[in-house]
Structure formats: structure tokens, C-alpha cells
Amino acid sequence: MSHWYANIVPGWVNRWISPPRPVNPYRAIRPASENTAEADAILTVQSVDLCLAENNDEHKTDHFFAAKEALIVRRGDPFRLRIHFNRSYNPTRDAISFIFTVADENKPSPGHGTLVGLVPRDGIDYLGDPLEWAAGIESHEDKALTVLIKPAVTCPVTEWKLDVDTKLLSDGSKTFSIPVPIYVLFNPWCPDDQVYLPDHDQRKEYIMHDTTLIWRGSYNRMRPSVWKLGQFERHVLECSIKLIGTVGRIPAAYRGDPVRVARALSAAVNSVDDDGVILGNWSEDFSGGTAPTKWVGSTEILQQFYKTQKPVKFGQCWNFSGVLTTIARTLGIPSRIVTCYSAAHDTQGSLTVDIFIDQNNKKLDAETTDSIWNYHVWNEVWMQRPDLGIGPYGAYGGWQAVDATPQEPSDSMYRVGPASVVAVKNGEILRPFDCGFVYSEVNADKVYWRYNGPYQPIKLLRKDTLAIGHLISTKAVLKWEREDITATYKYEEKTDEERNMMLKALKQSGHAFSRYYLNDTFNDVEFDMSLKDDIKIGESFTVIVKITNKSKDNTHVASGQLNCDAVLYTGTNAEEVKSMPFELELKPEMSEFVRMEVQFDEYFKKLTSQAAFNISCAAKVKATDYEYYAQDDFRVRKPDIKFTFQGKIVSQLPVDVIVRLTNPLPIPLKKGMFYIEGPGIEKALRFKVRNQYIYCNGPIST
Does CATH number 2.60.40.10 belong to domain 15-185? Predict the structure, then answer.
């Protein structure tokens, strides 16, 4: 053999592709036909006990469904093997080597860390540098040898194959291939791992918990929904490992870098560039697939993708985020779901959301490419960022924003992050990856422009520095409640620090709108639009605009129009519900009110799946050049679903559950269906409501 490493471990170069042999999942056993006379001379492996129960428990991987038939360990910590030979091991004449290769690597290489050869040292007191693989003999009893093996804390996170080579120091060798999969994961328990999370409760929440909360709705009517992550369920581990290589296309040598893994997964979870996990759909037509609102967990989505290798139809931001959280926790990267209310989608990198209004006070969709979503859901993953070094605000490690919802391309692919939350807060928008985009999502200024035609100058109507980035939320650690993390993304509104960071970011932007905006000012006019926010679907609601004349001497006349439009949660208008023009006289230092009531029969046929509306007010003060435009998001609240458990809940035993909902509408409901997820439920349960019609204020139960 011509390879330089041939004399270290002879004869193993092509053995990693040998077909698997039938095997007891807890012990790899050499077939009896392979026990020849030569084995009496050469130390021969008869079986290898992978100590699955013991290892998976110590590495906190015993919850995985795959742990029944695979070894799942976390890098940087040792795992145990018990090797049974045909005779007693003699260190003076026998040599043992462990050969690890990345399972899907065509050309494994020691230089790339995808092929590792280990010779165990005597004893386990020191297993070497954390950055290196190591093996040590723990005990030697008759024909059995117990060995500890420690994967390097930077090794690729993937599936590995293991061969055990034995030879006489004088001559001759044998190989025993272990066909049982070995999965090596990130290790947030290990201080030397880049994803190390020191807090015990946070590790329990962000790695081990398999159910979470996702906040949706609008900033004035937040609504949590339960999401079953299911990271330990059948095929989820295998699917997550496969995604890194086949869809994420990360070379095996780089699969140990959590920054590259997180960035690749943010693209792999959506289907735009690479036929990833979920096909997005922001229309109201979900024929041929499942409506995003009907998914209640990640498990069924990932299992379907693993089976078909085709994008699952359909998803929106919270589905992308839920699935990405599942994959990250599966791989060992601490992750949480984050909701930002009134989140900006800045398409031009201006750090402003630019809204263009025509002469009829209607938003120009063709010119208005930016938008404000009622809410947007993304992820945070926890890791250090040695690639960013140390900045003026310290290190950039900790929580990193990652977004799998396909919005804008980043380096030619639809993905976002990982963006250091520390960098975002401090306006360092040029830091990789996509800090500027995330900064706009949480802290852009909303700017209204009057558009008078392609050859006319645009008129700056109004700026709103408080419109973007409200109530940034995540599930609290070990509590079923909301934790507000707004302060981690931005300084408090109206403070000098917040404005200074905005100006710092704008100066780095270089966009035409941002430069124009910096050099202009607005008149000080007081319009106050309010709306009672606790409106249950089926009830009417009233929009109120208070207009105040702050002049001590002059009477003014204000005219304008109130509009109510049904919208998708992305801020895109679906259909007009109602509009009302107004004109009124404002006496000096007096206030007047404009009221528009919207009845149920005016809006119910135009409701979108999110039950969301956009309320806008356009006004002009006559005899002046002053114009005003403002808008706000609003949603009607859907009724609560109540669970009642019959009797005591005991693990592994059936339990009767009554699920009840009361119809709040003045019209009957038809075709009722309940979707129920929970621990151990691989596929969401679907229950049709027996009654064909559920009348007004009538109960629905199953």
C-alpha cells in the first residue's frame, strides 16, 4: 500500500464501505464463519458491546427513539465500549486500533478530520487535549477489554462508522466492522464546546424540552400556541443529520462548526433554493397540502420529508421556526423560538420601512416593497462566535438570530444568520451574518411618502420611530409563560442610546432613502388613533381618531378618510372591509373625535386565516401643506379551546380527554375539526365534530 498512513493501521482504507452484517443492536458479534484457525494466533474481536443504555444515559441521549438501535453521544465526553476477543489481550504482542470514518464521506481524510485512527493508551486518567480524539483502556478482564473513547470537541457532528482493527506486533491483522450507527452531536454540557451553555435550567429548556410555546397574533392581542417539537421522536435524528449533508450541503469536515451548521439549516428548512423541508405559502389557498395553521408540531413535517425527500406543503414563519428549533435541539445546539411583533421586512437595506401613498390615500403596492408583519417568528441559537473576534462591546457570542423563513437572499440563498444579537443591539449592521436585516426587523423607522407620479418628487409625510419591534417574546425558562427579550435586541425607545444606534446604523447603510431621511424633518401634529383590543370574533369594533388643534389662535379644518382592510399577517392587504371619509372643524386648543364602527356582517366574509386587519387614517389640514398618514394592526380574538381530563393521568395508560370550544359567532359553524398533538403522538390526531352545525353560542366537544 502506497499511502503514508498504511503502516499505522494496515488494510483499513477501503473497509469502511463494507456492507453491514446482521447484528444485535446492543452488541456487534462476528459471524461464526469468520472464526478460522488464524484467529488462534491473531487477537480476534468476537463481539463489541456498545453499552447503549449506559452511554446514551450518560450523554443524555436516551430519550431519542433511535437510541434503541444506535449509539448517540456528545462530542468532548467519553463513551464506553466492551470488546470481547477470542483470547486474552496481551499488550506486549497485540495491537488494537479504532478507525472512525464519516458515514457519507466518499474520501475520508485524517487531514480533514473525517477519518480518525486511535490507538488506546493504558489507563483513562488523561484522555488528551479536548481538541483531539483519544482512547484509553479502562479495564482488562480475561477475554474482555473495556475502552473509553472521547471524540474531539470540534469533530464533525454527523453519523460515523467504526472499525476495530487487531494485529500481532509481528505480523497479520484482522478487522471487525460495527454496523450499528454512531451519531456524534454537539455538547452544550461541555465547557470546551462552542455551544456550551453554562446554566442548568437553560440546558433543560433549550435542549431537552420537546414542547414549547409560539407567540402569534398582534402586539395588542398576543396569543400563545403550543408547538410539539418532538426532537426525540422516530426518524427526527436521522432526518436532522441527513439535512446537514444532503440539503445543507456542508462538507463533512465543516459539520462541527455550529456557525456553518446554523447558517446552512436556515436555508435547508425552506424549499426555495434546495428543495428543503417546507414549502412556504402566504396566500389563502392551501389546496394540495396542509394549511400552516393546522400544523401543531414539527414531528409529522420532518417524518414526511424524511420519507418522501420532497418539500412538505405548506408553511409560514412559525412553522419554519418550529422545525428549525427541533433540528437544532436534536443536533445539540441550544435553540429557542422568538416572536417580534410589528416586525419590519426591509427589502432595500435602507433601515427604514418606506410606505408610498397615492393621491387617493391608498398604499401603492408596486412602489411599496417594504412591509410590516403583524408578527414574525424566527430562532435564536446559542454559540460562541470566534469568527467575529472581540468588538467595542465585547465578544459577540451568546444568542444568535437565525431565520429560515425565505424573505431575502443572503449570499445568493434565502437564509438569515446567524446574526449576533449583541451586534444587532449595538447597530453593527455589517457584522456577518445579516445583522443589518435583523436590525431592520426590530428597529427600523417607519416612513410615509406621498407619491405623485414617476417624474414628480416624493413628499415626506411622516416618520414613526416607535412603530417597529414590539414585545419581542420567547417562552420563559421552565415556565409556561412569556419572557420579554426586547432589551437584548434594542435600547429602550426614545432614549439617547436607541437613537444613537439608529444613526450609527443609518450612516453605514448608504441607501438613498436613508440619506434623504436623515436630512429631513417633520412638522409636529397630533393625531391619536385608538381601538379597543379585546374584541372576540363575532363582535363589532370601533376605530376612534382623536385630532387635536394645538394652536392657540387659528381654527383649522381637517379632512381625510378612515380605512379598515383585511390583511395577511405579513402586512399584505387582502380585501377592503370598510372606509369612511370625514371633515371637521378644529377650534383652537380643542380636540375632535372621528369614529368608525365595523359590524360582524361587514367583516366576517373577508376574514383571513389570522383574523387580522389593518386600520389606517389619511388626513390633510386645509390651507396648509401638512398631510398625515398612520396605520395600525388589529386582530379579533379567536375563542379558547378547553381541555378536561377524566380521572388520573398515568404514564403508559389511556386517559379520557374532553376538548371543548364554544361557538361565539352569530352564525352556525360547519365542518369542525380538532387537531391534537402531545408526547408520544407521532402524527397529530384528527377528530371531526359529530354535529353538522354548531349554532350560535353552542358548545363543540369531542
Answer: yes
